[in-house]
Amino acid sequence: TTISDWFENGVAMKSIPAPTFTTSQWYVFNKQQRGYYRVHYSDNNWRALSFALNSDDYTRIHVMNRAQLIDDAFALAIGGYVDYNLAFDIVKYLNRENDFFPWYTAYRYLNSMYTIFGIKNQRIREFFNKLSDKYYSKFKLPANNIVPFDDLPERYGRNYAISFACTSGNAQCLEDAHTLVKIYANTDRKIPNGLELYYCHGF
User: DSSP states of 147-202 as a string?
Assistant: First the structure.
């Protein structure tokens, strides 16, 4: 998904030929999210994008556009332009995703949703738990119980992974939280900055 078309200065409209689409053919506007606007596609293209994301070829869509599609789908669902089922079909692909940026985008919507509905809704808890499992496995506590020093995106990613996984009851996350709190409670050390969420779930 590299940039191939753009608006010239002063041009109000541009037509781009598009083929007839199947579930294996899709297109993306605002490539690599260079512009500050939302994109609403036809039903056929939304389905094609969902199919592409939920396949082994999901990386054909640039990571910034993967984040954009999540953002646009949920924002449009909130505004009543698309059904929430579409947004959830898009976000299901996250069980394949390891990059921080799509998870950051999804977290902003899913965390609020879980706070409102998840505590009392078993299906939502199970959905979030399953969705967070693979992402948290990337950040789970190493065998030596020492949390590695991460680059900034990874540090934020670990924080979101902990919050999302532990809040939804992920067994590995809760076990890691309990282990770390027990270790630090018996020493003079403190849980490193950025991992304070383990305090919330480790007691």
Answer: PPP--HHHHHHHHHHHHHHHHTT-HHHHHHHHHHHHHHHTSS--PPTT-THHHHHH
